[in-house]
Amino acid sequence: MPRPMREKKAPHPLQEVYQHSFTAFYIICSLITPETWNLNPPEVRNAQLQYAGWGPRGQQLIFIFENNIYYRATVESRSIRLVSSGREGVIFNGLSDWLYEEEIFQSHIAHWWSPDGARLAYATINDTLVPKMEIPMYTGSLYPMGKEFHYTKAGEENPQIQLYVVNLNGPLHTMEMRRPEDPRIGDFYITMVKWATSTKLAVNWLNRAQNASILTLCEATTGVCTKKHEDESDGWLHRQNEAPLFSKDGHKLFFTRAVFQGGMGKFFHIAMSSSRPNATTDNLQFITSGDWDVTEILAYSEERQVVYFLSTEDDPKRRHLYSAHTVGHFNRRCLSCDFSNDCGYVSGSFSKDMRYFLLNCKGPGVPFSTAYSTDEKEKVVDLEMNEDLRNTLESMQMPKMEYREITTGDYSLTMQILKPAGFLDTAHYPLLLLVDGTPGGQTVSELFQVDWATVLVSSFDTVVVRFDGWGSGFRGSYLLHKVQRRLGVFEEKDQLEVLSKISEELYIDKTRMGVFGKVYGGYLSSLLLSSEDSLLKCGAAVSPITDFELYASAFSERYLGLPKPDPRAYGMANLANRASQFEDKKLLIIHPTADEKVHFQHTAKFISHLINEKANYTLQIYPDEGHYLHSKSTRQHESQSLVNFFEECFRLPDKAFEERLEEENEEEG
Ligand SMILES: *[C@@H]1O[C@H](CO)[C@@H](O)[C@H](O)[C@H]1NC(C)=O
Ligand SMILES: *[C@@H]1O[C@H](CO)[C@@H](O)[C@H](O)[C@H]1NC(C)=O
Ligand SMILES: *[C@@H]1O[C@H](CO)[C@@H](O)[C@H](O)[C@H]1NC(C)=O
Ligand SMILES: *[C@@H]1O[C@H](CO)[C@@H](O)[C@H](O)[C@H]1NC(C)=O
């Protein structure tokens, strides 16, 4: 039905929605003539679109408006609506809802072009049954307005997802891809979609408990999905949204799977699955093995029968680029290991014909990007050397980075220590412990980073320490899965042990130690600050998770299971249990009020317990700001607040006393 023309006042050209998503006006510009076209749905002018992008062939393009997908075969042809079930905020076609954007796909895009442009696969995500979250917006109107969106907290109804393929050649024809018949896949997530050939697509289905998954190959023309591989785990399944690589004919596929490697449990390695003529089952071979992880498969060259990938083989805190043969003994070699000392953590990508690769060195030195020829491993061109940054840093007192191995149980784990440039063994420094602790995460790496903590080291003579213990990634599944159903317990013990080890050093002033963390790290830093016998004096938490029942289903349930019928794991992990233990500690909580990921509710509930216990705390809010601070001035304000908080906490008592005296004198005078 035609809709009335809608005139909108010139609003903001680009409006952020969540971390990745936004709405905007789109204009197509001709490169030959000065012509432009506004990209609008039929009958609507100046529409703010949620997405617009080219297809793989000619001038094919799609755009998404009000959660419906529109298609144009060429720039000047008529727009065709491919699907009409979309409802704003409720039924999403081709785009993610909050949960899929943030926790599953980690992208707002939920549509996939077939390589020949003949078909488009898209997800329909139905949030009808998902409870709504309401966030009050305080500024901009006399009465606060509520911003509503569907958000699944632990144990609540999840969005339902369906996958469709629409045929764009000839009359429109839409087919649903049917989930594999398997009793384990009841309430499920689709975590990955990728076209293998122009008619087949790979789809990964994961059960809600996140301990069983099925990788299928779906026939786009019939909707039948056949099982290629399945995976089960006593712990949770990790890295479920990574796409496999295919040979041109689609008969061979490469993907990573966790496989048992001995004393430290499972590590991620490259599996090669080849279909055999006249056989119903595929042939599965593992191309790599060892107690290290393949972190990303980059390319497969059929010509050379070689697969290229990144791994932690050299060291868990590094990433290097390797090649391995897919035949014979799977011989493996490192392509980036001896390029430069400044280059320990790389990412990369290959040209379509695989004759060249682009290497991004992301640390420990100043990042740079270079193109190399694959066969000769010769540099072709330096693309970006970041000379300005290099020059700036040379004139600065940058921290010195050190590593120290800590033995806990059977593990030797790495502590990272940042010391001021003018470090003296005989001086006494305050210590700041930075924690993250998100299961599967990593904070100790050779990634280059400069932030407010760097400022504390170089301008306020602080020693900064990071350590990944139980629950962290890239050290095997035993270390990782240990925290299951007991979030916080082992991480707290580990970090305290590290604190006590480092505070034995004479250069550390035990009376001036603090901790900082964000989200899960905010949870952990609060645990550490309130630990019995904790030596920590102060701690700051940004957007802390304080109660996992309030947090996103896909995250909380992965580690703690469903809260119903047995909520004990959730009860044990609740930060409120610690409310009485913040006496004589300095706690700063920073929380934006419109945080769409860790709702302000976490902090509100937690401080109500602190108040009951007469505990001291400082709360800093950012009105109407979201989880990822959109405004630059707010980001600067946050960094400055953190520096100020720790600078004050770490100030030597006599100095503080002198300043107070000075202030008093000024008041009197
Ligand atoms: C969305 O889900 C609701 C509740 O299950 C159902 O009634 C409705 O038909 C679904 N809509 C679409 C477009 O799938
Ligand atoms: C997966 O989790 C569910 C719920 O906790 C459990 O009942 C089931 O046995 C688990 N499956 C595996 C393979 O561990
Ligand atoms: C597969 O089966 C077909 C027909 O049954 C036969 O012609 C062909 O030789 C078989 N191929 C192999 C590799 O066995
Ligand atoms: C906490 O507040 C009480 C008064 O309510 C005060 O006596 C005490 O010094 C405060 N503690 C800290 C660490 O600021």
Question: How would you describe this protein?
Answer:
The protein is an alpha+beta fold. It contains eleven helices and 39 strands. The strands form ten sheets. An eight-stranded mixed beta sheet has the order 32-33-35-34-36-37-38-39, sandwiched between helices. Strands 9, 10, 11, 14 and 15 form a five-stranded antiparallel beta sheet that branches. Helix 3 packs across helix 10 (632-649). The chain binds 2-acetamido-2-deoxy-beta-D-glucopyranose (4 copies).
- Give a short account of the largest sheet: 8 strands, mixed
Structural class: alpha+beta
Q: Which strand-content bin applies to the residues?
A: 25-35%
Report the C-alpha radius of gyration, rounded.
Answer: 27 Å
Strand order of the largest sheet: 32-33-35-34-36-37-38-39
| Overall geometry | globular
Helix percent reads 10-25%
Hetero groups in this structure are:
2-acetamido-2-deoxy-beta-D-glucopyranose
Q: Unreliable stretches, pLDDT < 50, 5 or more residues?
A: 1-11
Terminal CA distance reads 78 Å
Number of helices: 11
Name a few traits of the molecule.
single chain, binds 2-acetamido-2-deoxy-beta-D-glucopyranose, five-stranded antiparallel beta sheet, globular, eight-stranded mixed beta sheet, alpha+beta
Short structural description:
The protein is α+β, with helices and mostly antiparallel strands and 669 residues long.
